[in-house]
Amino acid sequence: MVSKINGKLFAEMIIQGAQNLSNHADLVDSLNVYPVPDGDTGTNMNLTMTSGREAVEENLSQHIGELGKTYSKGLLMGARGNSGVILSQLFRGFSKNLEDNDEINAQQFAESFKA
Predict the structure, then answer these.
(1) Are 46 and 52 in contact (CB under 8 A)?
(2) Which of 81, 5, 96 is nearest to 43 (CA)?
(3) I need a surface site. Which of 13, 32, 64, 84 has the fewest CB within 10 A?
(4) Element counts in the chain: helices (H) and strands (E)
């Protein structure tokens, strides 16, 4: 059982999450019907997540705060469409809450999502 989440574990979570989104981007595209059924939300989120994942893979850190900054910047720099920009901003708030931590526990992880 994992009691702490460090940069290495967070990187693994990011990589697996990006892969899962990639596997289901078409499904997310099909959900996009409002306000315009342009069908590209999954594609844009996938491209954004891929950019964040690549930034993490190129700058691995055991320090979760540092890795969070890397991930947040990678998401923003690769953001595609409104959904990508929104996704990058969600993780910006998440990562801002982590920046001073080497590692975190589950409670801090949940609090970071609230941030």
Answers:
(1) no
(2) 81
(3) 13
(4) 6, 2
pLDDT in tens, 56-74: 999 999 999 999 999 999 9
Residue 3 has what pLDDT? 86
pTM for the whole structure: 0.90
Contacts of 57 (CB under 8 A, 6+ apart): 11, 15
Structure tokens that stand for 48 in this block? 């954004």
Per the listing, tokens 């499904």 go with 27
| Cβ atoms 42, 24 nearer than 8 A | yes
| Residue length of the chain | 115
Burial bucket for residue 56 (CB in 10 Å: 0-12, 13-18, 19+): buried
What is the b/e burial string over 15-35, where b = at least 16 CB atoms within 10 angstroms of the residue's CB?
A: beebeebeeebeebbeebeee
Omega of the bond leading into 35 within 30 degrees of 0 (cis): yes
**pLDDT the model gives residue 38:** 78
